[in-house]
Amino acid sequence: MELFYSSTRGSSETVTASQAILQGLAADGGLYMPTEIPTLNLDISKLSKMSYQETAYEVMKLFLTDFTEEELKDCIAHAYDSKFDTPEIAPLVDADGAFYLELFHGSTIAFKDMALSILPYLMTTAAKKNHVKNEIVILTATSGDTGKAALAGFADVPGTKIIVFYPKNGVSPIQEKQMVTQKGKNTFVVGIHGNFDQAQTGVKKMFADPELNAALNEAGYQFSSANSINIGRLVPQIVYYVYAYAKLYENGVIEKDEKINVTVPTGNFGNILAAYLAKNMGLPIDKLICASNENKVLYDFFTTGVYDKNRKFILTSSPSMDILISSNLERLIYRIGGNDAEKNAAFMQALNGEGRYEITAGMREQLTDFYGNYADEQETAAAIRTLYDKTGYVIDTHTAVASSVYSKYREATGDQKKTVIASTASPFKFPRSVMNAIDEKYNSLNDFDLVDELSSLANVPVPQAVEELRSAEIVHRTECEIEEMPEVVRRFLGNA
Asked: Which of 112, 177, 247, 287 is catalytic?
């Protein structure tokens, strides 16, 4: 059965999976959603014996139906290979009553690698399938992790260029150095004088700018996205929840059809949306626990039904979650609104205008799958310290937000179901915050001395991605104001 995709904002026209991947964002500004959610009809005993790559094929073939078996398996084989430092790709660690799904074993030590390792292959395959003659320009905003993972994925990929905008003072020093040292003749990194939401809004405006897009087309280019607004980012993320469930079964932790909970540190809402889609496919997930940091716009939404971005933007120790406009929430709003694109477009127009919208009582009733809460900076640090003191296991700041919120959920509900916590980044990406949480005596050390101390403390080797940064040369030094973003793009593309 072929699956098609339609925009969350109105166009009645449907596109294939490969067309949706190429476009990234629909012409009307909406996000692509499958016209129906496929069912995962695989027996758990079979699934539990599969490798990560085999699981990826079984899940992704249901969504990317215009890719042939050979094409899809080729993309998967190129993506999930020796660039990951463990053959399991996404191992589970049992620590203090929860199962930490380590999603940071790829080349940039963050969960974005799980999807951005495959997206370049999906995109170049999609371009061939659709006889695209233009060079594809990947235009992306990052709150810290997407940028480097996308740069690493697309560096020197023929027929593509990639431009990444990041908030100049809104990422960790390690995150910034990972981006500005990226090699590749087709890569371009820009620090904006603003926050992530402003970068993301600027990117969306460029996608929707007909004059800019016409000029690009004339010059032989077309935009696409590596953000999780691209369905080619979202579908691969479903895989690791299916894989984690199968491994819990294989290891005798759960029985057949036993329900589990999933806790996800959440900023742009893509990672938890992937878990929601896995549940809708039939994976036995009960509660989706949405963990926010002090930028708790999602917690407030799940509590009140009101999404309101009109608030102070807070820089925290979990910068990838410092977001007030969670783009992928739009896909959930569209679904719980009965796939009513007109209703959804009105909500998004209100968000764009007044900065807020309120969903209906009927829509709120469909949010019972979710539990939302948040952890402040002190609670985040305490979660790192407590888990280390109890088990010797060290987690990063984003995972700590999830760990803290999971503890709150368990205390509030008494729910003892087995729970998977999405561990979204290596602690080596945020060594200062992590080491200060464990003991403030480390505060005087520089970042790379902290990395060595962390390695000794956690009894884990320094990841290659961090080791390489010690002597890496800075390649990208461009900065700009928010309103200068389109001009910067034009300049990079030869004044298109």
From this structure: 112
